[in-house]
Design goal:
alpha/beta, Spore Coat Polysaccharide Biosynthesis Protein SpsA, Chain A, six-stranded mixed β-sheet, 10 strands
């Protein structure tokens, strides 16, 4: 299964993101789910109701003392995801046609690839890269850099797919 995790906080553009992402998830040959981790305290319920048949909605409550909740929301999405492959994107992102299929295809074909901006260093030191997992990252169009090892860090952009080894 492929899980697409979308994080959101008070962004009405989530509606168009969900429309595009759910259509792409349904077009995959693999089973897929879309999970929204929302920190809007119910202010986006009209969007939740519009997409409730295709999207699993997780209400996120920011932990005390946390100012920026983005990494906490992503972690909540990982905990909720049922897929072996997890793809992240944010509300407001408008995926290119076939973005999801192109993103997960190399992972499904067991290729060891990663795409993104290399910034050097060792794993987890600079970017929080998810090595030594196989990863594919893209925000719209990207090029892949095959054969990268766990010593290379990547500045992960809007989207990433991971599969535990």
């Amino acid at each position: 299964m492929i899980s697409v995790v979308i994080i959101s906080k008070d962004e009405a553009s989530l509606d168009s993101t969900l429309t595009a992402v759910t259509a792409q998830a349904q077009a995959l040959e693999e089973p897929a789910e879309v999970v929204v981790v929302d920190a809007s305290d119910g202010r986006l319920d009209y969007i939740r109701l519009r997409h409730q048949a295709q999207v699993r909605w997780v209400q996120f409550d920011r932990p005390p003392g946390v100012t920026v909740s983005i990494p906490h929301q992503r972690n909540a999405g990982v905990r909720e995801a049922k897929g072996e492959i997890i793809v992240f994107t944010d509300s407001g992102c408008r995926p290119e046609p076939e973005w999801l299929a192109h993103l997960v295809r190399p992972v499904l074909q067991d290729e060891h690839i990663a795409a993104g901006i290399t910034i050097g260093g060792t794993r987890r030191q600079r970017s929080g890269a998810i090595s030594p997992r196989r990863a594919a990252s893209a925000s719209g169009r990207s090029s892949t850099e095959a054969g990268k090892t766990s010593e290379t860090c990547f500045a992960i952009s809007c989207s990433v797919a991971v599969m535990p080894m």
